[in-house]
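Q: What structure does this chain adopt?
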Amino acid sequence: MRTRNRAPQEKMPDEELSRRILFYGHLANLCAYGCIAGAVLGVLAGILLQSFTAGCTIVMLVIVAAVFLIQLIHAMQSSLILGQLGDGFMAALHKAFGPQPEHRQWPMSDELARRSGLFPEEWESASAHGSYEGSYQGIPFAMHNASLIHVWEVRGPMPDDPHNTRTCSETIFKGLFLVCRMRRPMAPEPFALPGEFDLAPESWKQQLQRAVDARALRISFRGDLMFAAFDTDRKIMAVSKDIDPKIIDEYRRSFQDSVDMMKDLMEAVAQNTELF
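A:
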């Protein structure tokens, strides 16, 4: 199958990039205000038509359309930032962890999450929004901004109603998921790390948690792999949402901060010289 080589985006000065980012931000705000105005008009239309159903339908259509447009605008804004600054972002990752392998060993998947043995809860779907696979001090690893979702159906009280069921979902886990290869196999099946597992003056588990500001940590081993799931709001390969678009260097610094967090985590992993 022939693939097209997409032409790289022409790089623009920081001032022009800042104006483009601000434009998308203003556009998203305009959609939000339009959503409020549309919802008010929907309520008024329902009153004038003396139809509660018509008013609710208009309000719902306006809200759905506004949410879709806002998400589209944010996606275009993110694409612009990545297209203009992505080369620098990738250079920072390559410098810290080397380039990603052509064929990745541990892409985020349902199979990988179940293989870890870390999530006994009921769930159906595992995904990642941002992943990197590389090596640090000779330790091969993969990091993911991971989510696990549980989806189920709830039946209403009227069994003959064709719209009797509704789909519900719950996020079982959202945080960082880490896979590392150890120097030697530990066990063929997953097993949990004991609560008191001190291989350094300071608890290794606490070192790992501090590196990514994690509220909780799950660890297991299988064969020569270590799996860890961090309950944290920190993300890899990300920039802060609170950046002033007028200062483009803030995007570069924010992304470098996420790279430094990855390095801090892998540095903490490497402290366990018995395994790594």
